[in-house]
Amino acid sequence: MHANSASRHSRRFTIAAAILALGMALAGGETLAAGNIAVGHSFARATVPGQPSGGAYISIENKGKEADTLKSVSTPIAKSAELHAMSMDGNVMKMRDVDSIDLKPSEKISMQPGDGYHIMLMGLSKPLKNGDHFPMTLTFAKAGKVNIDVEVEAPGAGDKAAAGHMH
Fold this sequence. Notes:
Helix content is about 20%, strand content about 45%.
């Protein structure tokens, strides 16, 4: 009977650990994988009422031995979601949309505010509020579709990380 009691305790612990892991995954801090692509921290900036667009950021890593390509993104909270690249030309920031983002084998891209790639959310259906979450689908050429949960963070979140990369 003692062994049976220990077994029940072990099952309860395992169930509690699984529930905790699920909660962490739903909080936007998870790493999801599709094929050889791993998608890490995903977040968007909070917006103000009436602001028609916003920005979202993810980290993606190609853990495979073949290149892959992020071809598109979509989300029900915006009329469109576009891949954009930002660069500095002297003191002028230039932003342009890109058709796709190539990922070489073993390459990792970490999108951050103010530096490199980001996702523009155009035609928001409602303001993005700090603490909210929304779904987003990433479509890769080889890995296929990856559904992620994006957490909305306060304005200015990530600025310290981006500040080290700005020129």
